Amino acid sequence: MSNAIIQVKNLVKKYGDFEAVKGISFEVMEGEIFGLLGPNGAGKTTTLEIIETLRKKTSGQVIVDGKDLEKEPQAIKNVIGVQLQAAGYYPNLNLKQIIDLFAGLYNKTADPMALLDLVNLREKAKSKFKELSGGQKQRFSIATTLINEPKIIFLDEPTTGLDPQARRNLWELIKQLRDRGATVVLTTHYMDEAEELCERVAIVDSGEIIALSTPNELIDKLLATGFKRTKAVKEASLEDVFLNMTGREWREG
Ligand code: ATP
Fold first, then answer.
1. Alpha carbon of 7 to ligand 1 centroid (Å)
2. Ligand 1 neighbour 35 (Cβ under 6 A)
3. For the whole model, what pTM was predicted?
4. 15 close to ligand 1 (CB < 6 Angstrom)
């Protein structure tokens, strides 16, 4: 039985009179890929950013790796990896220099080339962030989550805007991170992605968790109600056509 590395109890977040997160509770197990799913405005990013110590909660308790968010936010920061939106703020630094800069801020010695290798960006080491394509920027932002060798990695919509090959490439990378022992918490609007990657998912709607289970159990539960797809499913999809025509192998766009 694995340990709960994140425990969220009765978490509430109010923005003025509006309750964006309405007393949710859930646990993330060490070593799993956990997905937060839900419509726009459900409260996913708010929940993630509270756990990441980036937003203040209104009430409730959050424990990360045994540390209470209220008492030891800095200790939590030390064990988590968050995508650094700030990378774009350094227009004159190249990727290697940005990694060195953040490693310095974390007081860690990073191996920039090893991190860039991991996300297939070695040949872009001397390029500036603004010179990268959308997919390359996404991959670089994932590399930046790894600088402080975190136990838990948070990814907010990591594959939004990527082409089908690049998405698959990122799925492999996310699985690799999990296989190396990290716990991954992600949000996504792509249900195929959640089904492929997540051991368990929580479905959030209007600030409440309305389901929490493995994708398989959730699907079986729906089927048990007698649910049938209205449209017959063909053996292949348009995505299969796309991948078949443009090549399933990872390539640069
Ligand atoms: P999306 O899928 O669109 O990213 P989300 O599930 O991540 O949505 P949040 O960004 O957490 O949703 O927003 C939850 C609700 O809280 C929304 O109604 C949003 O308008 C509101 N909200 C978020 N941030 C603020 C803020 N700083 N001030 C006021 N309201 C906010």
1. 22
2. no
3. 0.91
4. yes
